Amino acid sequence: MIDSELLKPEAYRFIQSDEHLGRYVILLGLAGSYSYGTNNEKSDIDVRGVTLNRKSDLIGLTRFEQYVDTQTDTTIYSFMKMITLLLNCNPNTIELLGLNQEHYLYLHPLGQELIDNAHLFLSKRAIHSFGGYADAQLRRLQNAMARDSYPQSEKEQHIFNSVKNAMYDFSRRYEPFENGAIHLYTDKALNPDFETEIFVDAKLTHYPLRDYKNIWNEMHNIVKDYDKLGKRNRKKDDNHLNKHAMHLIRLFMMAIDILEQGEIRTYRKEERQLLTAIRNGSFQNTDGTFRKEFYELLNDYERKLDNAAAHTALPDEPDMARVQAYVMAVNERVVRDEI
User: Fold this and answer.
1) Cα–Cα distance for residue pair 214/68, rounded to 1 Å
2) Residue 94 pLDDT more than 60?
3) Beta bridge partners of 284
4) Could you tell me the residue ranges of all domains in the chain?
5) Which residues contact 311 (CB under 8 A, 6 or more apart)?
6) Which end of the chain is flanked by fewer CB atoms within 10 Å, N or C?
């Protein structure tokens, strides 16, 4: 029975009533700023959880991966999807196994068992998973700085780099074309308002129109996003940038804990003051850029992560035999109607 006071309002009724949730839920916890210790008076309540796959999901014809309620910002993963995400050391889900005890809103014995088995999912995959998420946060900062602070020619180069990065993925998702069929480069601008400008040489024959449309739309959308500078709410965007900066550093902190200590520590008690200062804009200049001290802090954490990755005792990959034995034991109880 789920009886957390926070989950009693009508808005959370779906947790009790949905056929995939109710008695199948084994874990519910606070996510986001409350779980990190960086919440303030404006922070929203985010809930994350895990629910068992039903018998019909395991040996029948139904399929279920997750339940998302946007009104309450709640996401509840199926047990099997959660296992897949944990095996990849997905930062957004691995943190659910390292909450402060008071941040768990509901724990079934099987939920506690999942937490107790957190070590099974820790491996060197964390280097790439946390590193990838941190890189995404850093790119958001770099993109914003490019829109706000760089001279036009540097902005154009940054747009060019973003488009080129997108093109690397086109061959996987669209019909491949010969090298040089679409050639991007920067040159002296024809546009009188620009110093330099991105140009394209395109030569395609017998190419699927829909693939070409999708490629063009993706490149167009990247350029369009940069051109929204004059329409931005600067105060709102600065708040977002500071949150990105805070999460960037927090990801490094969590990754270092995992690699050095084999420990998932979501609540950042010792670093809370630093993270809160970043979120509140203490490392941001009046023009929206970040102070030198922030980049020095970032460089320091990058060095610490590199060192932790080089010396970690974690295995290259999770022990799949042990994980499978654990997963089969849980799912067997579902199939036998023992839950």
Assistant:
1) 28
2) yes
3) 290
4) 5-122+318-335, 151-231, 233-311
5) 260
6) N
pLDDT digits (tens, 9 = 90+) for 247-281: 999 999 999 999 999 999 999 999 999 999 999 99
Residue ranges in the chain assigned as alpha helix (H): 14-17, 33-36, 55-59, 79-87, 91-94, 109-116, 125-148, 152-167, 170-173, 209-226, 234-261, 272-279, 292-311, 320-335
Nearest-angstrom CA–CA distance, 100 and 266: 8
Confidence (pTM): 0.73
Q: What is the pLDDT of residues 111-164, one digit of tens each?
A: 999 999 999 999 999 998 888 788 777 776 766 665 555 567 767 776 787 777
CB 77 within 8 A of CB 50: yes
Query: Which residues does 163 contact at the CB level (< 8 Å), separation at least 6?
Result: 184, 198, 219, 222, 223
Which residue, chain included where needed, has tokens 């060019």?
A: 160
Tokens of 22: 């109710």
* Structure tokens, 313: 């005792």
pLDDT of amino acid 179: 47
Q: CB burial class (10 A; 0-12, 13-18, 19+) of residue 58?
A: middle
Q: b/e for 269-297, b at 16 or more Cβ within 10 A?
A: eebeebbbebbebebbeeebbbeeebeeb
CA 68 to CA 264: how far, in whole Å?
Answer: 25
In CATH terms, 5-122+318-335 corresponds, of 1.10.8, 2.40.360, 3.30.460, 2.60.40, to 3.30.460
Per-residue buried b or exposed e for 237-257, using 16+ beta carbons within 10 Å of the residue's own CB? ebeebbbbbbbbbbbbbbbbb
> What pLDDT does residue 325 have?
98
Q: Which helix (H) or strand (E) segment is 187 a member of?
A: strand 182-188
Q: What is the mean pLDDT of the chain?
A: 87
Q: Model confidence over 10-23: pLDDT tens digits?
A: 999 999 999 999 99
Q: Does pLDDT of 230 surpass 50?
A: no
